[in-house]
Write a structure and sequence with these properties.
This is NmrA family protein. By secondary structure, the chain is of the alpha/beta class. The chain has eleven helices and nine strands. It binds NADP nicotinamide-adenine-dinucleotide phosphate. The site of NADP nicotinamide-adenine-dinucleotide phosphate (NAP) has 18 residues, from helix 1.
Length: 289
Amino acid sequence: MTNQSSTGADPTRVLVTGVRGKTGLALARLLAERPSIDVLGGSSNPDSVNIGGVRPIAFSWDDPAGWSAATDGVDAMYIVRPDRADAPDLIGALLPETPSRTRIVLLSEQDADYMGAAGWAPRAERAVRDSGHAWTILRPSWFMQVFTDPRFYRDQVAQGELPFSSGGARLAWIDARDIAAVAERALLDEGHAGQVYELTGPEALSLPQTVELLSAAAGHPVALRELTVDEVVDGTTGFERELFALTFERVRAGSFAAVTDSVERVTGRPARTLRAFLSDAGSPFGRAA
Ligand SMILES: NC(=O)c1ccc[n+]([C@@H]2O[C@H](COP(=O)([O-])OP(=O)(O)OC[C@H]3O[C@@H](n4cnc5c(N)ncnc54)[C@H](OP(=O)(O)O)[C@@H]3O)[C@@H](O)[C@H]2O)c1
């Protein structure tokens, strides 16, 4: 998709769903830095979206009546798959409401094929592939931002512990900003249609190696507490429980351990290390956090 400003044509309009989330926020910031991109930041809570150069717009998976207004005139759309059982159906219902020329980039997950064709993640991907839109699928490993997000491990790390179920497997943690950089290219540049990118950081780390880096960043020891999958899912129910259990089964099977060079191939620069990510993050693990 070419930048049309010099011709005086309308700017390229991009809808970023999940704009408050880890990859959506990073992507919206990148897009907003570009001239002549009209960035729409989709959220079920648009009043809470305050990102320079981004126009908040109501987008909720629970409100299909609002989808056509959100996607009106959109040249490219980033879809953050909702972690809910009906995600494949919702994505399949959203795309016919979206202009047929809209380029689609879907956020999926690494090694999604592990689940078999009837699995939840492959079905969500298939809704995009079968939509008739030009598409690109991103399959990232676990995000480094889980360590700094208060909805994930930030507060536990601040308190000196990382509860996790790795079974000794490694993870190729990826910086969500690298996922966003790939998404930006796929949304705006030619050559990415029909591509499935498995996206990882530059190295696969064991959990002992991971907590060593977290300890150095936090300035106090962070101990690994290895859990069983049953212990991890304790307290959850329904689909959330199923998804957690499957995700940690996959962690233990090494689904997130393979390292790829896709970030560098697409963006031209290597993926960030966990050490660099933690150094950029400042001091998110203060005891008061
Ligand atoms: N996390 C990982 O390591 C990882 C790895 C591989 C794949 N994935 C996949 O990536 C997708 C995104 O997952 P995620 O867990 O990383 O979620 P996320 O993108 O950080 O957040 C998802 C959504 O949660 C809502 N939200 C609710 N409260 C929020 C708050 N306080 N701050 C920010 N957002 C808030 C936002 O939507 P509203 O604004 O509409 O409320 C946001 O877009 C999922 O499909 C997941 O399976 C995640």
